[in-house]
Amino acid sequence: MDHANSVLMRCMDQIDLVCQQILNDPLMADGFNAVGISQGGLLIRGLAQRCPVPVKNLITFGAPHQGVYGVPDCEIATGSYALCELVRELLSAGAYEPWI
User: How far apart are CA 36 and CA 93, in angstroms?
Assistant: First the structure.
């Protein structure tokens, strides 16, 4: 089910689910060390920020905490700087809109 949840479940719902599991585990009451890779790094960071159980150490590998700028190789694929710039602007404009 975890594989399906990583695609079908909203990130905030995944974080809330894991937080609830950690809160219900007495072995985690004093905190835990966390490691996340790529998308998992973003999720574990969200968990550290939202869940009241302390994270002692947080390590992430390849997690795009600063976001992604545009579409990789867009200009090569489309041959149009203007189109790629438009797409980048649209992505940036919608990046922080909660309804997107």
Answer: 27
Element (H, E) at 45: helix 39-50
Q: Taking the CB of residue 36, how many other CB atoms lie within 10 A of it? A: 20
Amino acid at 35: V
For residue range 12-71, list pLDDT tens digits in order: 999 999 999 999 999 999 999 999 998 889 999 999 999 999 999 999 998 877 666 677
Res. 84: pLDDT tops 70: yes
pTM of the model: 0.62
CA distance 86 to 100: 18
Helix (H) or strand (E) holding 57: strand 55-61
> Looking at beta carbons, which pairs linking 17-24 to residues 24 or more positions away fall under 8 Å?
18/43, 18/47, 18/51, 19/47, 19/50, 19/51, 19/52, 19/53, 22/47, 22/51, 22/53, 23/51, 23/52, 23/53
